[in-house]
Amino acid sequence: MKPHRYLTNLLLLLPVLLSAQPLYLGSADREGAAGLYLTEFDAATGALSEPRRLTEVQPFFFQLSQDGRFLYASGHEGSSDTPAVLRSYAVATDHSLRLIDTRAFAGRIPLHLVLSKDNRFAVVANYLTPTAVTIPLRPNGNLGPIAAEVTLTGSSIHPERQDHSYPHSVNLSPDDRYAYVADRGTDRLGAYAFDAETGKLIPLKRPITARPGAGPRHLSWHPDGTRAYVINEINGSLTPYTYDATTGHLTEGPGYPTLATDDTATNFSAEVKVHPNGRFVYATNRGPNTIAVFAVGDGDHLKRIQIIPTGGDHPRYMVIDPSGKWLIVCNRFAHRVNVFALDPTTGLLTATEHGLDFPNPTDLKFAPSGAKNNK
């Protein structure tokens, strides 16, 4: 091929290459297809490529390091009766995964984890134990011995779903000074000072509470770092909290229903995401199988502007693409991942024809932009 023709073809291909974004998917399939998968998302059209399987071990949750070199996934050694584990993988230049290390710890159902921004620690929330543990992350991807473990206690008013503590997620504050464990069982956010040098979790004296029977599940930070939004699984509401960086306290704001007032469907709200521009918040509802869209106002004010069907069943997780123009949701029981067009100006979602048939999708994450990867 002549050099000028090669250059022309490369220039024609460049927009396609730039629009293709690696997207990792987790499967909790019980028929032999569980594991981590990779698909390519076309940010120009919203299309997803046929996924390829990277691992054969079920991840409960996973996170990628900010530089994109490592992926960390929580799970179990075998069945849920075996010890919980954190697995570390090296991410290759083709985005495939190579297992580096496995660290076992006492815990059951490690549903969620968060990484410190310096990639020195992972904090894991164990749903049934109920505990949160800190695991050191080495520069080469190896995992250190447990640095901290805290046990959550208590209960709340729901006789079946709040009979004891159920830590559902863990998040660090924007400055990595505090850790918050959303505890569905106690209507509290377990709050801890986070020691960035040792990984220790020191309980804060002032409790952070949710309304009785709310069932806090997941938390998402506003880009300005002053507010957090908590999705409440049991009462189907979205609550803004105001962050005090001096004390670590989160002050509870009003609760905003994620369903219309005349909707009496059984609802288990699941996930919350804040748009990168900070103007909109998105919440999923399992049961009604919808996404509620809220416009962000001043302070803790929110206004619900849309409720749209997810096109499936049991929307557990979702992600907004780096451009802020697409939202992708996992419909776990429908074995379907669906793509929505997102208008960054209005915040409104529009269903598209794009998506994937995928076995029991749970979690999904885009590879970080500018990822270095490993050779």
Backbone CA Rg: 20 Å
Count of DSSP E strands?
A: 30
Name the poorly predicted regions.
Answer: 6-17
How is the main sheet built? 5 strands, antiparallel
Provide mean pLDDT, rounded. Answer: 94
Structural class: mainly beta
**Terminal Cα span:** 29 Å
Task: Give the quaternary arrangement of the chains.
Answer: single chain
Helix content: under 10%
Q: Can you describe what's shown?
A:
The structure is a single chain. This protein is mainly beta. Among the domains are: about 90 residues; about 100 residues, no CATH class. The protein has one helix and 30 strands. The strands form seven sheets. Strands 12, 13, 14, 15 and 16 form a five-stranded antiparallel β-sheet that branches. Strands 17, 18, 19, 20 and 21 form a five-stranded antiparallel β-sheet that branches. A four-stranded antiparallel β-sheet has the order 3-2-1-30. The longest helix has 17 residues. About 45% of the residues are buried. About 5% of the residues have low confidence.
Give a short synopsis of this structure:
The protein is mostly beta strands and 375 residues long. Helix content is 5%, strand content 47%.
Q: Which key features would you list for this structure?
A:
375 residues, single chain, 5-stranded antiparallel beta sheet, 30 strands, globular, mainly beta
Q: What's the topology here?
A:
Blueprint: H1 3-19, E1 20-27, E2 35-42, E3 52-53, E4 61-64, E5 70-76, E6 84-91, E7 97-105, E8 112-115, E9 121-126, E10 131-136, E11 148-151, E12 167-172, E13 178-183, E14 188-194, E15 201-203, E16 208-209, E17 216-221, E18 227-232, E19 237-243, E20 250-252, E21 256-257, E22 268-274, E23 280-286, E24 290-296, E25 302-309, E26 315-320, E27 326-331, E28 336-342, E29 349-357, E30 361-366
Antiparallel strand pairs: 1-2, 1-30, 2-3, 4-5, 5-6, 6-7, 8-9, 9-10, 10-11, 12-13, 13-14, 14-15, 14-16, 17-18, 18-19, 19-20, 19-21, 22-23, 23-24, 24-25, 26-27, 27-28, 28-29
